[in-house]
Design brief:
Layout: E1 2-4, H1 7-19, E2 24-29, H2 35-47, E3 50-55, H3 75-84, E4 89-91, H4 95-98, H5 119-122, H6 126-141, E5 145-149, H7 153-165, E6 171-175, H8 195-200, H9 203-216, H10 222-235, E7 239-247, E8 260-269, E9 272-281
Parallel strand pairs: 1-4, 2-3, 2-5, 3-4, 5-6
Antiparallel strand pairs: 7-8, 8-9
Helix pairs in contact: 6-7, 9-10
The structure holds pantoate (PAF).
Length: about 280
């Protein structure tokens, strides 16, 4: 596996592949790779000739007081993991390479409305940071296809909107969440959990699943289900940020007439802020 840190070297490599008619996939990450990321690489290999993984802890998507400084940076082991599954290229730029100008002078990408709700309301500016860096990475790599985990459901939706609105020639593929055997969604932030918190953490997925089962069984008083789920999260030791039942195509509040729903949750457990979601299709 080749590793490059500059946009110039990245482009030189990708240009060669494109000349040879090869299809290039990008998996943007912030590193601290787990099996969920490696699954994205495998999915990318199935739909492309070449896979590029970027590792960049993006300062623009972290708010004041969030974990930018302490976010785990594990380049050596990440690089070994990517090598072991035959990734073609690791792009690991510095902050100065991605943002040569001060943040205040950086052009930004704002995807309105869906960036301001749910995680966007608890983390103001987060999705501007995500959309801006993903746009820059797309322009640097010029991939044919890019893959993202569905665990970050709202992020995936923001990226799909950006690509559609700005006519970016990139196919976006969402890949189902990889879970631990007890249901906990894989996340780099699971590493923040103590042993005791790790034992409590699967309650998030359990409560999402119970809510999904209740909806499948005919419950459509969504505010009541949300309140019950919040209470259950608290009883399980979490500090809930939100627990919402939304339409899965636009994240607007769901009504009893809607068939395609997504239940989204974010909750703090110790130092970790965990997010997860489950889609519910009622048309079957
Ligand atoms: O999901 C992530 O790891 C990040 O938000 C992303 C998409 C790599 C942008 O920094």
């Amino acid at each position: 596996m080749n590793r490059v840190n500059s946009v110039k070297d990245l482009r030189a490599q990708v240009r060669q592949w494109r000349k040879a008619g090869e299809r290039v996939a990008l998996i943007p990450t912030m590193g601290n790779l787990h099996s969920g990321h490696l699954h994205l690489v495998e999915q990318a290999q199935a739909v492309s000739d070449r896979t590029v993984v970027s590792i960049f802890v993006n300062p623009m998507q972290f708010g004041a007081g969030e974990d930018f400084e302490s976010y785990p940076r594990t380049m050596l082991s990440d690089s070994e993991k990517l090598e072991s599954i035959a990734t073609d290229l690791l792009f690991a730029p510095s902050v100065a390479e991605v943002y040569p100008k001060p943040q205040s002078q950086q052009t930004r990408i704002e995807v309105p409305l869906i960036s301001d709700i749910l995680c966007g309301s608890s983390r103001p500016g987060h999705f501007v940071g995500v959309a801006t860096v993903v746009c820059k990475l797309f322009n640097m790599v010029l991939p044919d296809v890019a893959l993202f985990g569905e665990k970050d459901f709202q992020q995936l939706m923001v990226i799909r909107r950006m690509v559609e609105d700005l006519c970016m020639p990139v196919e976006i593929i969402g890949v189902p969440t990889v879970r631990e055997p007890d249901g906990l969604a894989l996340s780099s932030r699971n590493g923040y959990l103590s042993d005791e918190e790790r034992a409590m953490a699967p309650a998030l997925f359990r409560i999402l699943s119970e809510t999904a089962d209740a909806i499948q069984a005919g419950s459509c008083d969504f505010p009541l289900l949300e309140t019950r789920a919040n209470d259950a999260l608290q009883a399980a030791g979490f500090r809930p940020d939100y627990f919402r039942i939304r339409r899965s195509d636009d994240l607007v509040e769901a009504t009893a007439a809607d068939r395609n729903l997504v239940i989204l949750a974010a909750a703090h457990l110790g130092r970790a802020r965990l997010i997860d979601n489950l889609t519910v299709n009622l048309s079957a």
